Amino acid sequence: MNSTQRINLIKSILHNVGVVAVGFGLAFVGTRIDWLLGVYGFGSAYATAAGSLLITAGFLLRVWATFHFYQQRMNVIALAPQQALITSGPYHFSRNPLYLGGNVFMFFGAGLVLRSVSGVSFT
User: Fold this and answer.
1) Under a CB-based contact definition with an 8 Å cutoff, are residues 97 and 64 in contact?
2) 102: which of 22, 27, 38, 53 is 20 to 30 A away, CA to CA?
3) What are the sequence ranges of the domains in the chain?
4) d(CA 92, CA 94)
């Protein structure tokens, strides 16, 4: 791995740590909403394990997708449309693996880990 690839990998990891934090933040807000509504969280070791697995899978998918974006010399966060369409790597399997990994896998997983009905429903 050359130095540019290492930098891209580090940027990819750091970019996605924030997404994990946002997922847990939303799930925490969900626990407060549950408390206000009198809804008691569900809890089981299976739900926690499934949530942890979803968070891990979502994080790895997003790191792969972000790294692939950086390798194509594209910006992950852009206010203008991109000039090219990526159809290789994780984009071969999903049109938007960043959304799938973050908003679906990580946010749903965080809701399961924190046992929040509202947190799970945010996804």
Assistant:
1) yes
2) 38
3) 3-121
4) 6
Angle in degrees, 0-180, between the axes of helices 3-37 and 45-71, rounded to the nearest 10: 140
pLDDT tens sequence across 81-106: 778 888 888 989 888 898 999 889 99
Structure tokens at 107: 């946010």
pLDDT exceeds cutoff 80 at 56:
yes
Half-sphere exposure of 16 toward its Cβ, with a 13 Å CA cutoff?
29
Residue whose C-alpha is closest to residue 20's, from 117, 115, 121, 114: 114
- Give the confidence band of 23 by pLDDT, cuts at 50, 70, 90: very high
**Structure tokens, 40:** 């008691």
